[in-house]
Amino acid sequence: MVEWTDFERATIADIFSRMQYEVVGPAALARCLIVYPWTQRYFGNFGNLYNAAAISGNPMVAKHGTTILHGLDRAVKNMDNIKATYTELSVLHSEKLHVDPDNFKLLSDCLTIVVAAQLGNDFTGEVQAAFQKFLAVVVSSLGQQYH
């Protein structure tokens, strides 16, 4: 089980309370698909993903990016049991969708960049450390079925 400090809990709650899900989610997923083009293979039914402009303007990318952030809400609300929170989602992504678990880490890195840009100077090293710890726990939990 992961131990969370009061600062980490407060920081994670603050970041998510300030986050514009419909902006950050699509931007993070689009960045992931652009920077790591091999991740596009999981989104073949999303239509035109031929270039950065097409990806950024794709409504299915935007919708799924928002869905991802709302999925992270579950972890924020269940920080003491993130692994159990994501058991079903982990099975879906590993056994049905066959998503490479490394892609969760790539997406979390892109999300960190987008959140840092949105928060600006408020995204201090301490805030980043708490956010990345949170994302690392989520990524590990999502990848649990692969081990």
From TrEMBL:
<dbReference type="InterPro" id="IPR002337">
    <property type="entry name" value="Hemoglobin_b"/>
</dbReference>
<keyword id="KW-0813">Transport</keyword>
<keyword id="KW-0479">Metal-binding</keyword>
<dbReference type="GO" id="GO:0005344">
    <property type="term" value="F:oxygen carrier activity"/>
</dbReference>
<dbReference type="GO" id="GO:0031838">
    <property type="term" value="C:haptoglobin-hemoglobin complex"/>
</dbReference>
<protein>
    <recommendedName>
        <fullName>Globin domain-containing protein</fullName>
    </recommendedName>
</protein>
<comment type="similarity">
    <text>Belongs to the globin family.</text>
</comment>
<dbReference type="GO" id="GO:0020037">
    <property type="term" value="F:heme binding"/>
</dbReference>
<dbReference type="InterPro" id="IPR012292">
    <property type="entry name" value="Globin/Proto"/>
</dbReference>
<dbReference type="InterPro" id="IPR050056">
    <property type="entry name" value="Hemoglobin_oxygen_transport"/>
</dbReference>
<dbReference type="Pfam" id="PF00042">
    <property type="entry name" value="Globin"/>
</dbReference>
<dbReference type="GO" id="GO:0005833">
    <property type="term" value="C:hemoglobin complex"/>
</dbReference>
<feature type="domain" description="Globin">
    <location>
        <begin position="3"/>
        <end position="147"/>
    </location>
</feature>
<keyword id="KW-0349">Heme</keyword>
<dbReference type="GO" id="GO:0043177">
    <property type="term" value="F:organic acid binding"/>
</dbReference>
<dbReference type="InterPro" id="IPR009050">
    <property type="entry name" value="Globin-like_sf"/>
</dbReference>
<dbReference type="InterPro" id="IPR000971">
    <property type="entry name" value="Globin"/>
</dbReference>
<dbReference type="GO" id="GO:0004601">
    <property type="term" value="F:peroxidase activity"/>
</dbReference>
<dbReference type="GO" id="GO:0019825">
    <property type="term" value="F:oxygen binding"/>
</dbReference>
<dbReference type="GO" id="GO:0042744">
    <property type="term" value="P:hydrogen peroxide catabolic process"/>
</dbReference>
<dbReference type="GO" id="GO:0031720">
    <property type="term" value="F:haptoglobin binding"/>
</dbReference>
<dbReference type="GO" id="GO:0046872">
    <property type="term" value="F:metal ion binding"/>
</dbReference>
<dbReference type="GO" id="GO:0072562">
    <property type="term" value="C:blood microparticle"/>
</dbReference>
<keyword id="KW-0408">Iron</keyword>
<keyword id="KW-0561">Oxygen transport</keyword>
